[in-house]
Structures are given as structure tokens and as C-alpha cells.
Specification:
The chain is α+β, with helices and mostly antiparallel strands. It is 66% helix and 14% strand.
Length: 214
């Protein structure tokens, strides 16, 4: 009789422990899924950039300026020509421009790394340079962006690539708000995951006490 009771108790303990382990694993799975979703959202963060083409009638030189820039899930580059006609650059065009600018950076001939006075006197940035000066740079040319990010001339030329100080400020403000919103959402998800883990821990301890008579 006592042996029979012991067998039932052992089976109950094993069954309870198995249920707790399964619940804990499910919680960990939820946390991993949340992390994957967060990383996916981070990777998708991009920008929609509108670039205006300018043609200097005296020198016949073509330069470009960023006239609008907002956060977006997918990165898009809109080019408005001197006549006001807009079109979206294809991925192939973007990739080609990034590669061309990367070669210039490696050769030391990129306007992005020159002194701002030199860039201004030469008429400004070309299309590839303007593209890499935009907030879309990290999404379309991460490797090149890393090479440029610590260059003081690049930082100054980047700011000067906008059509006006107000356009630059508006862009910085919109991206700052987007980062804050995403950071807040990430903290909420992390907090929810921590709460679930805490709940499983309490349940585990309570069940253990009741099983062993503590």
C-alpha cells in the first residue's frame, strides 16, 4: 500500500516538473520570437529621401540637394530633376551609385571627405555623394557609411547637403522621434518578457513547495 502511494507521488512530481519545464520553454520561445521581431524591425528601418537636381547655367555643372527626408519601413530615393519631374531610383541605380562613391572614397577623391569650403567652391555634391549624405546611407551602403562616419569633413558636408537648415532640422527631428518610439516599444516588449519569466519562477517555487510539503 505504501509502495503504491509512493509510486503515485513520484508520478505526480515528475508530471508537474514536466509541465513546468514545458511552460518555461514556451516562455523562452516567446522571448526569442520577440527578439527576432525586434531585429527584423531594426533592419527594416529606412528613409524616404527626395533629392533635387540643380543645374548651374554659368558652369553647366549639375549638383544635388536633399529637399525632404522622412523615416519609412522601406528605403526609397526620389529624384526630382531640374524640370520638376520626379522618379524613384531603382535598386540597381542605387547600388551603382554607392559603388562609385565607395571607389572615390578609397581613392581619396570623394567630395564627402574634402573640406566643406572645397566642396562649396566646386559647386556641391554629386548624386552619389548626396545619397550617401542622407539618412538612407546606413540602409543602402552600410560598409561605406562605417568608413565615413568618423570623418569630420563628412559630418559637415552631410549637413550642408540639405537644401536649407530647416529641412535638415525637420529631418533630424522626425528621425529622433522615430528612434524614441521604437526604443519605447522595445522596452515594453522586454518588460513583458521579464514579467512572464518572473511569473514562471514564482509558479515553480510555489508548486515545488506544495509537492514536497514545504
Amino acid at each position: 500500500m505504501n509502495r503504491h502511494i509512493k509510486n503515485i507521488s513520484s508520478a505526480t512530481i515528475i508530471g508537474s516538473m514536466g509541465a513546468l519545464i514545458l511552460a518555461t520553454m514556451q516562455g523562452c520561445g516567446d522571448n526569442s520570437q520577440n527578439q527576432v521581431e525586434q531585429n527584423s524591425q531594426i533592419q527594416k528601418k529606412g528613409a524616404t529621401v527626395t533629392i533635387q537636381e540643380y543645374i548651374n547655367k554659368d558652369t553647366n555643372k549639375t549638383t544635388y540637394k536633399i529637399i525632404d527626408e522622412v523615416p519609412s519601413v522601406n528605403t526609397r530615393v526620389i529624384l526630382r530633376d531640374a524640370n520638376g519631374t520626379e522618379r524613384i531610383l531603382s535598386q540597381a541605380e542605387i547600388d551603382k551609385l554607392v559603388k562609385e562613391e565607395e571607389k572615390r572614397v578609397e581613392a581619396g577623391t570623394s567630395a564627402l571627405t574634402k573640406k566643406p569650403e572645397e566642396v562649396r567652391d566646386s559647386g556641391g555634391l554629386g548624386l552619389a555623394g548626396t545619397l550617401m549624405a542622407s539618412m538612407a546611407a546606413g540602409a543602402i551602403g552600410a560598409a561605406l557609411m562605417n568608413k565615413l562616419s568618423n570623418n569630420p569633413n563628412y559630418q559637415q558636408n552631410r549637413r550642408a547637403s540639405y537644401s536649407s537648415p530647416s529641412v535638415y532640422s525637420r529631418s533630424q527631428s522626425s528621425f529622433s522621434k522615430a528612434r524614441s518610439s521604437f526604443s519605447s516599444a522595445s522596452r515594453t516588449t522586454t518588460s513583458s518578457s521579464a514579467t512572464r519569466r518572473s511569473g514562471f519562477g514564482s509558479s515553480s517555487r510555489s508548486t515545488s513547495r506544495s509537492i514536497f510539503g514545504g
